[in-house]
Amino acid sequence: MLIMKKILxxxxxxxxxxxxxxxxxxxxxxxxxADLDCDVDVKEDAYTFIENASIKARAYxxxxxxxxxxxxxxxxxxxxxELPGVHSARFYKNYSYFERNTKILEMMKxxxxxxxxxxxxxVYYDGEQExxxxxxxxxxxxxxxxxxxxxxYDPIFYYPPLGKTFAEISAEEKHKVSxxxxxxxxxxxxxxx
Length: 193
Known about the structure:
Layout: E1 6-9, H1 14-24, E2 29-32, H2 49-64, E3 68-77, E4 83-84, H3 97-107, E5 115-125, E6 130-141, E7 157-159, E8 164-165, H4 171-177, H5 179-192
Parallel strand pairs: 1-2, 1-3
Antiparallel strand pairs: 3-4, 3-5, 5-6, 6-7, 7-8
Helix pairs in contact: 1-5, 4-5
């Protein structure tokens, strides 16, 4: 019987865990913090995506003693000087994502340059070595909220090659083109090399 390597996903975001699980299905035994009954909240107060992911990877490795995948990701909007960026999860923190997305659309109502991109910094830490993988996906801010799939800013992130927002495409389509999918494929290629 083949025993799959265990990897912990260092995130309390159920949607991120689900996406990473779907992409690693059949390759690794993917555990979440909930699987380990771990409710430790790690403070992400660094200035870059990589630094935040590294903080999480090392902290959760110290708790679980198994290899950890941690990511920090966010949406950067050209009109807002690349904000919210590393602060994406804390941007209008007391608002729901529907309210945040609505607020962004209101602030960009008459703006022509709607360029935006998602960044995912993924860190793999096995207790000895730390490896970094970056994925980026370029698109623009939609004119309106559209779609029921995805999460976070996906309903306003329009991806021109598919002519839809990330919330309008299937999980399979998103995994192929998303920032997280790109970073995770780099990580998996490294693990399998």
